[in-house]
């Protein structure tokens, strides 16, 4: 008899953003698999086996889950945010595809979650209120020219831009190159949001004009949102601002 | 003394996808404001006042919430999915901006939710596993040429495409035009997902090749996802398919 794999999005951090469906899937599982800091957010019940691994070990995690499920176990693979957006679900299905016919016997449920850009947007107002793109800036998995080409196309078509994985210890220069490119396309006053560790104890948020935005405003836990030509800043009482993108778009 | 406005995303439909933060905000509110069918998903407690309105009455809802908050009331404005993505949050901040300085005294919390494309993607696998765009096909609020231009740019840059509001009673031809445009850019075998009423009792899902996709596969409750050149279909045991977009992108 085959087991079951739940791929579970834990939301941005605070337990208040973990859906009841995600909590139920976690409670059912005999095995919890994931990147250590994400597993640390889960209150494991007695008897659950925790398998923490390194951030880069995604394919190993997928194969581990598949071998446990083949042995009849119920497994939850956890991701931060939503598991389907730059996270573990795609890796699992890639592993399932390589199994060929045996992959058809694997029972999988993907439990959707609150993805980082949605949490960041809510914290700042409604910057994703109109057409937007989500782009990973990590070039571990794709050529830098592909990233640049997509950012250019999306910026020229006036999408709001949400950047996942804007920076890492191994990649310090890419975000600077992206900001430089955007300055050739978007106005200097375009708002740029750096939303870090949203809903977690060390949450911090910075808003800059595109002209003054700097890569050092981001770290590995930052989601960057760049407004479209229509995005607006509205003062809040506390010296802070709301940012929103109106649903009504003017003629180009 | 001023009240408070919570803008709350209810997720795709099933209560299992409503976050604890959303439930808490709904429970706190003295007044619930929203489109009737969305409010019908909320179990109001005794003493809460329900203000249901028509789908198009977004700005009226925002002003209603602001006047209640100005009178010291606690209000929840509800949206399906996430309130920040093609939904009420942007409308509220637009209304707040028009208030000028008085707008700075309005206390607002946006509570993030599971947006429709994330729920649809989870149901089908991980089609949003790599760079993607979200585009509303409604031309109530923007010129049709803007929509066409954005779809063309995003398709040429090989983003996965998620279409909100693909069709309505008043707009039957647009989705057909979009599919025709995409056939000039993407391969005939590109998977197209029609995900309708995800997580609700009348949920249904259809997957077609781009060559055979038809507007009649969508209705007002459908989220349409069009794969990139990298998106893959993997057979499931039940004659159904998983669709995922690998995180690793080949050179262009």
* H/E element sequence of chain A: EHEHEHEHEHEEHEHEEEEE
Overall pLDDT level of chain A: 94
Q: What is the global morphology of chain A?
A: globular
Strand content of chain A is: 25-35%
The radius of gyration of chain A is: 20 Å
Q: Which strand order does the major sheet of chain A show?
A: 3-2-4-1-5
Taking pLDDT < 50 over at least 5 consecutive residues as the criterion, the unreliable ranges of chain A are: none
User: Largest interface, and how many residues on either side?
Assistant: A-B, 82 and 82 residues
**Care to count the β-strands of chain A?**
13
Helix content of chain A: 25-40%
Overview of the structural elements:
The structure is a homodimer of 252-residue chains. Chain A has 252 residues and is α/β, with parallel strands linked by helices. In chain A, the strands form three sheets. In chain A, strands 3-2-4-1-5 form a five-stranded parallel beta sheet, with helices on both faces. Chain A is 27% helix and 25% strand. The first copy, chain A, starts with a strand and ends in an 8-residue tail after the last strand. At the A-B interface, helix 1, helix 4, strand 5, helix 5 and strand 6 of A face helix 1, helix 4, strand 5, helix 5 and strand 6 of B.
